[in-house]
Give the backbone structure.
Amino acid sequence: MNLSELQASMLRIRLVEESIANKYSEQKMRCPTHLSIGQEAIAVGVCSNLTNEDQVLSTHRAHAHYLAKGGCLNSMLAEIYGKVTGCSKGMGGSMHLIDKSVGFMGSTAIVGNTIPVAVGLALAMKIQEKQLVACVFFGDAAIEAGVFYESVNFAIIHKLPVLFICENNLYSVYSGLEVRQPKERKIFKMVKAFGIETNHGDGNNVQEVSSYVKIAKDKILSGCGPQFLEFDTYRWREHCGPNYDNDIGYREEEEFLEWVKKDPLKSVYDNKDQSSIKEFFSKFNEEIKKAHQFADNSEFPSYDDFQHIVNS
Ligand SMILES: Cc1ncc(C[n+]2csc(CCOP(=O)(O)OP(=O)(O)O)c2C)c(N)n1
Ligand SMILES: [Mg+2]
């Protein structure tokens, strides 16, 4: 992807998430919703290097990953509206997205939970001698879960084709890294000590993310084993929900404003009046409006739909 394609993909994700935030108070979307506004460059920079057959796993904050991998927007919004046309038949909500047709293998609410699943998928790829990569996104808090260590260790020992992507947005809900980990610790350095190649970059610079991922993916496919990348970024809105929450005391407005200056979409918003960029805004806004209408007009799952899932 060239720069304008990367920017367009980030803008589409931003506008989708802003539409969710703007419409959330209508009370038609009733599931918890974790927005990744401000973090779009990692999803797009990573997924722009993946093929349809490469597989991706994600977290509770999954919208950007799902969309960047090519997941169907109608099915995502219908899922958030709890409708049967949703990607999990309306029974999973925002945190349980899946679109296997594009290699988006799922997201779950339990922190760290999808890391071993990615390792398992990579083991299958290796056994079947496929030239593919399994990529798993997780936050800075997931490295505090025991399963992270077991999974990375297994992937190293078996030289599995896994790309571990740590989105370090400095917080786990309301707890900053400074109250969770020793001050001097750098995540990518600690993980390197396990015996895996790691790297660290600016997660708000889509081209930088993309170039680190390209190198890491080439290494995986040439048989060097798993790779771990940590990218710095910042979540703009509250941990869960559509609002800003800088007033509640766990982080400072100044810190937030510093990160807003580093908006991954800065160049797009700075040129918003240019006709080519205006076209992107209107095209995506139209698509998003229709997707909300699709979700709103769809049916809720029936008891039979539920029984079908339970029994299948
Ligand atoms: C095993 C487990 N522990 C706690 C929670 C509650 N919880 C949900 S999201 C979250 C924070 C996750 O932080 P991070 O992994 O850094 O992702 P971010 O929300 O910052 O994107 C926590 C603690 C959970 N879902 N699962
Ligand atoms: Mg975090």
Notes: The chain has a mean pLDDT of 97.
